[in-house]
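Chapter summary example.
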Amino acid sequence: MKQPQDVATLSSHSTLTDALQISASFVSTLRRYFSVIAGMNLVWEFAHMPLYTLWSTGTAGEIVFAAIHCTGGDILIAMSALMLSLLIFGAGWPLKRSAVYRVVGFTMVTGVGYTVFSEWLNIVVREAWAYSELMPIVPVIDAGLSPLLQWIVIPGLAFAWALHPFRRSVES
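The structure predicted for these 172 residues follows.
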């Protein structure tokens, strides 16, 4: 005859199942986010290359290297911004709406903030790259419009894709 399970055993089984579901949700969300981040940043880096002087002064090899190198940097920035956001605001992410809003908001603010800093550092201080006359400049911050849009559009789309499976099931 089968013995009834005690409440503690049922509770621990439920907790373990919940933990595994949360872990799977977390990992699948990260995979979806970074797949969009990597792919779209690679496309964006090649697409906005004419907005930099390297487009007219560099060889094809230098341009390809720069786009791939910058994509790697974009992935590291996105990963760092998201991980920092998750460490600070991530309790309940991606299953709780309030956590989703905090993580997405802080990640995007961090990405844009770092971009403004990086553009200033690499254009003004280090002179590591330069804008061509085609790059629209955002007044006051003197940063190129394309890199700013890159850090608004791509993470926005990446989060939309990554969080889509949870759209209806996210708790308030």
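To summarize the output: Strands lie at 137-138, 143-144.
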